[in-house]
Design goal:
- The complex is a heterodimer of chains A (385) and B (190).
- Chain A contains 12 helices and 15 strands.
- Chain A has helices at residues 7-17, 32-44, 57-69, 80-95, 120-123, 138-155, 180-186, 210-242, 267-280, 298-305, 325-334, 357-368, and strands at 2-6, 22-25, 50-53, 74-78, 101-106, 131-134, 159-164, 172-176, 249-252, 259-263, 285-290, 292-294, 310-315, 343-347, 378-379.
- In chain A, the strands form 3 sheets. A 7-stranded mixed sheet of chain A has the order 3-2-4-5-7-6-12, sandwiched between helices. A 6-stranded mixed sheet of chain A has the order 9-11-10-13-14-15, sandwiched between helices. A two-stranded antiparallel sheet of chain A has the order 1-8.
- In chain A, strand 6 (131-134), helix 6 (138-155) and strand 7 form a beta-alpha-beta unit.
- Chain B has 190 residues and is an alpha/beta fold.
- Chain B has a single domain (2-182), classed as 3-Layer(aba) Sandwich (Pyruvate-ferredoxin Oxidoreductase, domain 3), CATH 3.40.920.10.
- Chain B has 5 helices and 7 strands; from the N terminus they run βαβββββααααβ.
- In chain B, strands 2-3-1-4-5-6-7 form a 7-stranded mixed sheet, covered by helices on one side.
- In chain B, helix 1 crosses helix 3 (135-146), helix 1 packs across helix 4 and helix 4 (151-161) packs antiparallel against helix 5.
- Classes of the chains: A alpha/beta (385), B alpha/beta (190).
- The interface between A and B is medium-sized, with 26 and 19 residues.
Chain lengths: 385, 190
């Protein structure tokens, strides 16, 4: 049934429907509403789960590593500095092959203190071995969270469901919330391949010498490849129950596009409204929305961008000393494709700055009116200081 | 698409009013989107919240810069905040005030309306004597000024959200709906 829900509640509803057994969290704006909803669900018995209040995000992830190792389904949510504090244990969760699912509400990193949207926090975790999804609206948040459990558990890797601070986390909009029985049909109970069991004692996390470690890492690399190849099948099953499908990327009017924007998160929606506007004026804009960032869907990106004359990547994040991070990934995906289009990198909306249709249109004309990128990243909307 | 901006002070229920109105419009068959201005919240400080409604899916994910209508839950904001900032010509301004706001001339070009929501909230014992919570009264008044959604959609939205304590709020919304004053030469929308 469709209800008007906050993005944060869409996450909490998906976690309830996934029958998560252990939730652990430390509050941080703008993640707070997610764990407030979940603590209420746990207290009222709406969810049959243990809610662990911990003293830090580092402890939070440690607690989930323990819980998931004992064979139960787990969840947490965090943002910004909280995710940064978890960093060490993010590697641990992936290395231990624990399919923990986390909602990550993108928040700018301090200093200066800033609670607003900026993707650098989650993108800085791209090498930890976590699957990463970026969501566009509340419906996609609830659907992606359920899919993330299926995918994570099928390849034994943790997954992050990423949503924009405020523009998604604190925005109310109509969301179709699945019935429990439908969710159960899609997502069966979690069955661990290995778990802590006093009846069958074994050792977890011992010293691993060079003779074995490399193979273990290679297994993670293979699991990521499997995740990419297996996800369309999982989405088919989801679509069979719920009738909704998003893809690892979505190519919007790319077939005949001269310029293709590469977007992620809520910027995609605003770009869709610009696309309608520009198309009505005869401009051939397309959009490639990246939904799955890890594993990175290289083939799908090459296919969608292959016919474009120019590509403009819009990054709400930055890797200092390099460029916008999606732009890096897109360039890396294209560089071995013969005759690929030039990639223009634009940085916009940093630290919660609004990305308006006017700003996106400025990016469109800058791209259209330049033969080649003037530099790796052009920062849009900077004020003169 | 219509965009409505709500002005209030922290503690008056401004954000809740915006959310409940979005639910009322959703009942009336609209696509809706509502969100607060993403700032730092403090009791008594100026608060803004936004509501978008449309017959089709809403794609814009930005702040609201040029609203079609403005709702002001606290008339003391008028001295410090330009509540008509970006307001489209001919848009309505609904103010919680016992009488026509002073300096009503500054609203020329807009449809000015007011309602004594503080008195209605007090009469219905919503909030305290010093801090009446005016949001549900203002919801009734908004429905009157815009001519939509129906008062019954507003009432249903209040009942759904405030199950234990709904009836005083429902009465307040109904009273406010009937108590809206319009500046001369302006007629209600429906």
């Amino acid at each position: 049934m469709k209800r008007v829900l906050e993005g944060s509640q869409a996450v909490a509803e998906a976690v309830r429907l996934a029958r998560v057994q252990v939730v652990s969290a430390y509050p941080i704006t703008p993640q707070t509403h997610i764990v407030e909803f979940l603590s209420e669900y746990c207290a009222s018995g709406t969810m049959n789960a243990r809610f662990l209040r911990v003293e830090s995000e580092h402890s939070c992830m440690a607690a989930l590593i323990g819980a998931q190792s004992a064979g139960v389904r787990t969840f947490t949510a965090t943002s910004g500095q909280g995710l940064a504090l978890m960093h060490e244990l993010l590697h641990w969760a992936a290395g231990a092959r624990l399919p923990i699912v986390m909602a990550e509400v993108n928040r700018a990193l301090a200093p200066g203190w800033n609670i607003w949207v900026d993707q650098t926090d989650s993108l800085a975790q791209r090498d930890t071995g976590w699957i990463q999804f970026y969501c566009e609206d509340g419906q996609e948040v609830i659907d992606t969270t359920l899919q993330a459990y299926r995918l994570a558990e099928s390849v034994a890797l943790p997954a992050m469901v990423v949503l924009d601070a405020f523009f998604l986390s604190h925005t109310y909009e109509p969301v179709d919330v699945p019935e429990q029985e439908e969710a159960d049909r899609f997502l069966p109970p979690y069955e661990a391949r290995f778990q802590l069991d006093t009846a069958a004692p074994c050792s977890f996390g011992p010293l691993v010498p060079p003779a074995v470690y490399m193979e273990m890492r290679h297994d993670i690399a293979k699991a990521m490849e499997t995740a990419l190849s297996r996800f369309p099948g999982i989405e088919n099953e989801y679509a069979a129950v719920f009738g909704r499908r998003y893809g690892v990327v979505e190519a919007i009017r790319c077939e005949d596009a001269e310029i293709v924007f590469v977007t992620s998160g809520t910027v995609t929606s605003t770009a869709r409204s610009l696309l309608e506007n520009l198309r009505s004026r005869g401009e051939r804009l397309g959009i490639l929305k990246i939904r799955l960032f890890r594993p990175f869907p290289v083939e799908a990106v090459r296919r969608a961008l292959g016919g474009a004359a120019k590509v403009a990547v819009i990054d709400r994040n930055f890797s200092f000393g390099a460029s916008g991070i999606f732009a890096q990934e897109v360039r890396a995906a294209l560089c071995n494709a013969p005759g690929h289009p030039p990639v223009f990198g634009f940085v916009a909306g940093i630290g919660g700055r609004d990305v308006t249709p006017e700003l996106l249109e400025e990016i469109y004309w800058k791209t259209k009116n330049s033969d080649a990128p003037e530099k790796e990243s052009v920062w849009i909307g900077l004020q003169e200081v | 698409m219509l965009e409505i901006r709500f002005h209030g002070r922290g503690g008056q229920g401004t954000v809740v009013a915006t959310i409940l109105m979005s639910k009322a419009f959703f009942r009336a068959g609209y696509h809706v989107q509502s969100f607060p201005f993403f700032g730092v919240e403090r009791r008594g400080a100026p608060v803004e919240a936004y509501l978008r409604l449309d017959r089709q899916k809403i794609l814009l994910r930005t702040n609201v810069y040029s609203p079609d209508h403005v709702v002001v839950l606290d008339k003391t904001l008028l001295s410090g905040i330009d509540v008509t900032r970006g307001l489209k010509p001919g848009g309505s301004v609904l103010i919680n005030s016992p009488a026509a706001p002073t300096g009503a001339g500054s609203f020329s070009g807009f449809r000015l309306a007011w309602v004594d929501a503080s008195r209605i909230a007090l009469n219905n014992r919503i909030g305290s004597r010093t801090h009446p919570i005016v949001n549900t009264s203002m919801m009734g008044a908004v429905a009157r000024v815009l001519g939509m959604p129906s008062l019954e959609d507003v009432v249903a939205s209040i009942r759904e959200e405030l199950p234990g304590d709904a009836e005083r709020n429902v009465t307040a919304a109904r009273e406010a709906y009937e108590a809206v004053h319009f500046a001369e030469t302006v007629k209600p929308a429906a």
